[in-house]
Amino acid sequence: MGSGIWRRLVPRVEDTDPDMRRMRHYLILLGICSFVGFQIWRGVFTNFAVESAGITAPQMGMIQGLRELPGLLAVLVIFLLRLLPEHRLALAAAASMGLGIAMTGFFPSYAGLLLTTLIMSTGFHYFETVAQSLALQHMPPDRLPHFLGQMGSWTGLAGLVGLGLAFLLSGRLDERQLLLAGGALLVGGALFAGLRWPHFRERVPQHKHMILRRRYSLYYALTFLAGARRQIFVAFAVFLMVERFGFTVKEITGLYLLNSLVTLLAAPQIGRLVGWMGERFVVLLEYSSLILVFWGYTVADSRWLLALLFVTDQLLFLMSMAIRTWFQKIADPADVAPSMAAGFTINHIAAVVIPPLGGLMWALDYRLTFYLGMLLACGSLLLALRMRTERPVADAAGLAELPQEA
User: Fold this and answer.
1) Which residue from 211, 362, 218 is spatially nearest to 279, judged by alpha carbons?
2) How far apart are alpha carbons 238 and 91 in whole angstroms?
3) How many Å apart are CA 176 and CA 216, to the nearest integer?
4) In the predicted model, what is the mean pLDDT of residues 366-380?
5) Where are the alpha helices (DSSP H) in 68-216?
6) Are 26 and 89 spatial neighbours (Cβ–Cβ below 8 Å)?
7) In angstroms, rounded to a whole number, what is the distance separating the alpha carbons of residues 331 and 404?
8) Average pLDDT for residues 163-175, to the nearest whole number?
9) What mean pLDDT do residues 188-200 have?
């Protein structure tokens, strides 16, 4: 009975290719460790910054803006791939992320948090870039939504375990010890993965130079706006709950714990929804719902409503997998790695600017920050109406015969 319930929550991605199976396990293990570490950091960071370092709203905006700078420089992944195989770069990035998390509690100052956040974020963004690239390269289009749903379930389970421990231990361990434990787990997981799976075969040789193609312009635009509106939630939703409504570390950690449960239960179903209804439907549903969520932040007058909005946003964030599966359908397979790097850079052009801008708007009226989020979600909704998934005529190998315009 238990195994039947688990199969419904976490559907198996059937594959007969041993290399595909190994890559699936590799990405899941690294994803689990990075998610636990990041969730602990995210659950503790705001309270640690406000209570131990005395961070103000404008300073928080600057820290969050700096946190997105490595994403702006994600294009450097293309050049790092000339030095390291892609799966090895994923390991190095995950270990760097863990190091930054572990160091955070030892630097309770504005300058210290700027430094540790930069280290953590560099690892986080480079790992996310490479992990998405590896998934798109090694999973065929008909299995990718299911794999991403499975990945979401495993990371959701990891978040439940990690945040559950943080929730239970928050009264016994201080914030420094929690951050140290989360970072050490991530570094250890990266070392284990490197020893367990040292080699992978490259399926399609990837371009090792910058690529921007006209036919990917809609993907670039959606990615740009997604980076902007997402940062409003990341930088200011938790800040709203802590500063204006007095949420404690345990309450914030509990909300992230609930988000992990939502991820565990909903991720496979959203993967199925993408495969059933298509990417365009899922993306339109996500953006139209986000408009209501941001509006809710402007009128919320109770802690319960804020908690509901926070969890709803996590559910909608899971739908962003549709952008990646849609891109796989329209992209040349050799473009995946450089395009993921370029996409992350484009995503973070706005993400570097929005948190400081949101902090300044917050000083005038906190609702202005969330009105900006509504505006960005409206722009994304209009662009998503142009999404199409028809592919050009494929050659005998199943790869699209697409023009190679620069």
Assistant:
1) 218
2) 30
3) 44
4) 89
5) 69-72, 77-80, 86-104, 110-138, 144-169, 175-196
6) no
7) 11
8) 72
9) 83
| Host H or E run for residue 105 | none
DSSP readout, 126-153?
A: HHHHHHHHHHHHHS-TTTHHHHHHHHHH
Two structure tokens written together for 237: 């939703």
Distance from C-alpha of 393 to C-alpha of 397, rounded to nearest angstrom: 11
pTM for the whole thing? 0.70
SS3 of residue 213 by DSSP? coil
Residues in a beta bridge with 394? 400
CA separation for the pair 156, 332 (Å, rounded): 31
112-126, 208-222, 391-405: which range is least confident on average?
391-405
Domain 19-198+209-384 indexed as CATH 1.20.1250.20: yes
pLDDT at 394 over 50: no
- Averaged pLDDT, 218-225: 86
| Burial class of residue 12, CB neighbours in 10 A (0-12, 13-18, 19+) | exposed
What 3-state DSSP class applies to 365? coil
Residue 202 has pLDDT above 70, yes or no: no
Cβ-Cβ contacts under 8 Å for 195 (sequence gap 6 or more): none
Please give the single-letter amino acid code of residue 122: T
Contact 36, 161 (CB under 8 A): yes
Name which of 45, 175, 178, 53 is nearest 112 in CA terms.
Answer: 53
Name the token pair of 161: 């375990």
The sign of the dihedral angle between the CA atoms of 147, 151, 152, 156 is positive
Query: What is the C-alpha separation between 89 and 77, in angstroms, rounded?
Result: 9
Measured N-to-C along each axis, helices 336-364 and 110-138 cross at an angle, to the nearest 10 degrees, of 140
The pLDDT, as a whole number, for residue 116 is: 92
In terms of Cα–Cα distance, which of 101, 240, 116, 96 is closest to 175? 101
What residues does each domain of the chain span? 19-198+209-384
Query: Can you give the C-alpha Rg of the chain in angstroms?
Result: 20
CB of 389 within 8 A of CB of 326? yes
The backbone torsions φ and ψ at residue 376, rounded to the nearest 5 degrees and listed phi first, read -65, -40
- Segment 9-15 shows an average pLDDT of 47
Mean pLDDT of 35-42: 82
- Other CB atoms closer than 10 Å to residue 253's CB: what's the count? 27
Asked if 131 and 30 touch (Cβ cutoff 8 Å), the reply is yes
- Return d(Cα 308, Cα 299) in angstroms, integer: 13
230: Cβ–Cβ under 8 A, 6 or more apart, which residues? 317, 351
The token duo for 258 is: 């609930």
